[in-house]
Amino acid sequence: MLLFADDQEPPTSLHRKALSFLEEDCEREASCVQVQELTVLFQNGDFDKAYEILIPEFDHCTGEKCFLLSVLKAKIFYEKSLIKQAINEYKVSLDLRDKLPPSYREDFAIEPVMASLLLEEEAFLTAIQYLRPWVERYSASENKDQFGDYYHNLGIAYLHLKKFDSSAFYFNRSIEIEMEMADTLGLAISYMDIANLYYEQYMDDQAIPYFQKGLEYALLAQEPDVLRNAYLNMAVVEENRGDLQRALSYRKDFEKVQNTLWNRDKVWEMAEKEKIYEIGLKEREITILEQKELVKNAELSRQRWQIKAYLIASVFLFILAGVVGVGYRIVSHSNKQITEQKRVLEQMDTAKNRLFSIVAHDLKAPVRSLQRSQQKMAAAASAQDKETLLALASVNGHLLNATQNLLNNLLQWSLDQTNQVHLMRESIEPGRLIEQVLYDYEPMFQEKGIDLETDFVSGSMVLVDIQSMKVVFRNLLDNALKFTPKGGRVHIATSTRGDMVRIAIEDTGCGMEQEVVDRLFEISQAKIQTGTDGTTGTGLGMILCQAFVSRNGGTIEVESQVGKGTIITLNLPRIAET
Of 175, 186, 327, 366, which residue has the fewest beta carbons closer than 10 angstroms? Predict the structure, then answer.
């Protein structure tokens, strides 16, 4: 899988320079209204409106201004995914630039932009014809990070043309710059591309070490898309070498990163759907208010007609009284509907604000921590400090697990709120269900030094949706693990009481105050708490547990004392044995 340089986006820098030059010109001419509006439109991404303002300007432009407008026009084509039109317009920009003073050639590096777009169109030879002369001419530039991208793109172009020696030469030049800049992400991509180069030539022995280096630097960079590809590459390598156990391990790592990316995208997709749903509710409220106004107008009209009818004949009073009663019931019913919809809307708005608050806090915090840790890992890698690297890798693992748990809870909560969770109930012993979840948690309890005890009663069956109850038990076990200190104890037991099966999860953790317990299942009152290992919890997991237990026909109870621990009891309906 061939990758282009990820962090190169030349059209962005070109259009910013063009807007800056236009602003300088308009200040000299004391006419900046159009340029300021264009700047705002580009910042807001409203490229259709920007195009409408831009096109008439070509009718009376000359020299430098025509060139700058052409750069902006090409940028609009690029953002609208009209790549061929963008290429053609950049060719026009090149012709106009070459008629301007030589300084414009250095200020506006259009050739590398053309090469990047031509690579997207798979016009590899043409891309080389634009990019290689530019690189050779300005290779002494101080912008080494950009030239690393240029060398990388040349390597990609030659690789597609099967000119492997030239491709390897430019990939190695790119790696030299990335090494100097400590660019772990760029190194991961470059090493994987060189590995692909050897794979294309059926030189597997030479390719494998580069795949391995690509994975090492992908782990340092912690960029999910690149890390996913690195794991997949190594899985294929090990399959080809016949080491199926390692191949399976890499496949599992690949799927874990893939699921993390999927969950992240799904959460934001659900948030966008919820936003659209809320807009629909507000529009409906406006419609109701308009209907209320129509009812009021009808009432006024009816009253005027009543006065006139009273003067004509008293016989119509009875009929008019009936009309008044109907109108009153309509208004009263409409008022009740508006009041109820307002209450529901306020509840949803509170839940939405809390959800966004959780996303803002608990997604930004670990991402920033990962960024800082990655910088430390890069420094440790340069110093070859393996002990520090292992420690930081462990920290990154905890951060990724915590973030994945948050994303899973947010996804499940969003699906539940929008009625997209469909239960498929099956009969099962609670102990067997808990054991399936414990299989993944026992190593983590052992690693933290927590004594895990179970006491399951056999023969008691419940009818539940297995997947939703697994989500419940994962959240409860995760809380017990998070808030129980090293050397503590977690006890899980099942019992029967009448027609109910009781499942108790007891820990010797830090416990909670009664005020926190009383508001534990209110989304608007969810409170961020810190576990014994420094990870945080938002309370969203417990809200999700209550929702899923309730949908399975059960109840959940919480008892807790600060400093002594917590007991969480689930009561599920018992079914007769068959």
Answer: 327
